[in-house]
Design a protein that fits this description.
single chain, 272 residues, nine-stranded antiparallel beta sheet, globular
Length: 272
């Protein structure tokens, strides 16, 4: 199997000699947060977390993307939390991009390494610790779970993307494939988190325009991505944040695969 890579922010500060011209953009339909903006001074700190800092990539914004928040967490050796979530009714997804962590879910221990994914249903008692001697970095996606009468909460899930075969899109000769953590037919889930992979030269051949909001973090490679009416160059470490109905398309640039971690809200009626 081809080795998968995962870009992570390095922090620090740019030099005083660096030009200010860049690719950061915030529009009425989308935002692009390039990797170069993820410096030390834009990190956040959270209650009950030790030796940890967070790059906040997305948060619910009225009139924009309203359903989720997404962080990149960096936890130093010995750090973590015994009370990571402080709000009721919140589900979570974790995706490890550097290092290893020790996760407990309702008392059950799990060791997670790069490519590791965990789904944490609302109401789950969980803790997270870095028991290694190097920092760990992971994405943390949070969403208020939309319960439906007659449907149970989804179960806990801890897997690794390297153990899951990507599913090719029809008629793409494997150029466009998706690694799915959740079963699309499982109506208990109100969000999906996937890893999407394009081989060099592969495309999204039409302007996808749909009700689902998106967070897309580029794990590997580069591409030219259509966002609304703009074509934007993106590379590993960039984050794209799309509101509902923002048109999107893609040309993967090579020389290696273009891969991103994708969030979208699914399987629920539109609130009236």
């Amino acid at each position: 199997m081809t080795k998968r890579t995962y870009y992570t922010p390095e922090g620090g500060l740019p030099p005083q000699t660096q030009l200010l011209t860049g690719r950061a953009a915030f529009t009425e339909a989308y935002a692009v947060i390039p990797r170069g903006t993820m410096s030390d001074i834009v990190t956040s700190y959270l209650p009950f977390w030790d030796k940890a800092r967070f790059w906040v990539l997305a948060r619910p914004l009225s009139g924009f993307a309203e359903t989720f928040s997404q962080y990149i967490a960096e936890v130093q050796p010995g750090g973590g939390s015994d009370r990571p979530e402080t709000e009721e009714g919140v589900e979570a997804a974790l995706f490890v991009v550097e290092g290893a962590l020790h996760l407990t879910l309702d008392g059950q221990a799990h060791e997670m390494t790069e490519g590791g994914f965990a789904y944490i249903p609302p109401g789950t008692a969980w803790t997270l610790r870095n028991t290694s001697d190097t920092p760990v970095k992971f994405h943390w996606i949070r969403k208020t779970y939309q319960a439906v009468t007659g449907l149970d909460h989804p179960p806990v899930m801890v897997v690794n993307e390297n153990d899951i075969a990507p599913i090719p899109m029809p008629d793409t000769d494997g150029g466009w494939a998706t690694t799915r953590f959740m079963d699309p037919a499982d109506m208990r889930h109100d969000m999906h988190v996937t890893v999407v992979t394009f081989q060099p030269g592969a495309v999204i051949p039409f302007a996808e325009t749909h009700v689902m909001e998106h967070g897309l973090y580029v794990l590997e490679g580069k591409a030219v991505y259509r966002l609304n009416q703009d074509w934007v160059e993106v590379e590993a470490g960039d984050f794209m944040w799309l509101r509902a109905f923002c048109p999107q398309a893609c040309y993967a640039g090579g020389p290696g695969p273009f891969r991103y971690l994708l969030y979208k809200d699914v399987n629920r009626h539109m609130a009236l």
